[in-house]
Specification:
Structural class: mainly alpha
Number of helices: 8
Shape: globular
Order of helices and strands: HHHHHHHH
Distance between the termini: 38 Å
Largest sheet: none
Low-confidence stretches: none
Mean pLDDT: 94
Strand content: under 5%
Helix content: over 70%
Length: about 180
């Protein structure tokens, strides 16, 4: 039963879902949300589906460290394209900085991959909690409460070690706080 709960938590709080929630709350029904969906989310979902359907990845999480190079490379390309589009076409200048903060999380996780496979699930949940702290405190608190449960789920499913979930949480919180305190939210 606990394995099933862990799986449900990992699906509901998948980084794509968490980031989509963050963008939807922060940007509302705006051009930012449309650009994020078109340039960031849809292409990344296509990569994930392709990689899993062709069996290049064991699962949609790119859990094997060697699978993560494609994940990080594609993510950074889409995030940088999104940041550029937001810089030129968004009435919300902080949106491009938010995309760059997401890119910084991917780049940091990629740089550390040789030593540890940071939990991106936990990193982006923590990032969303910190980023939403000045926008919608109720959702920020809910995300903050979800972070330890998500960490438990990732540990229960044996996708990460304790060091990797703590590292992911720390990276997400630092990136989110830096983004929020620099006028990002």
């Amino acid at each position: 039963m606990s394995e099933r709960i862990a799986r449900i938590l990992s699906i509901v709080l998948h980084p794509i879902a968490t980031l989509l929630l963050l963008v939807a709350v922060a940007a509302g029904r705006s051009r930012v949300l449309l650009l994020a969906i078109a340039i960031g989310f849809v292409p990344m979902i296509a990569v994930i589906v392709w990689q899993t359907r062709t069996r290049r990845w064991k699962n949609v999480d790119a859990s094997v460290p060697t699978e993560r190079h494609v994940l990080f490379g594609a993510s950074l390309v889409f995030v940088l394209l999104l940041a550029a589009a937001l810089r030129w076409w968004s009435p919300q200048p902080q949106a491009a900085r938010g995309a760059l903060a997401v890119g910084a999380i991917f780049a940091t996780a990629w740089a550390l991959l040789r030593w540890m496979k940071l939990s991106l699930h936990v990193a982006f949940a923590a990032f969303a909690a910190a980023s939403l702290a000045f926008i919608d405190q109720r959702i920020a608190i809910a995300m903050l409460v979800a972070v330890p449960w998500l960490a438990w789920a990732r540990l229960r499913m044996k996708r990460h070690t304790m060091r990797e979930v703590i590292g992911g949480a720390a990276l997400g919180l630092v990136a989110g706080l830096f983004f929020s305190l620099s006028g990002g939210s």
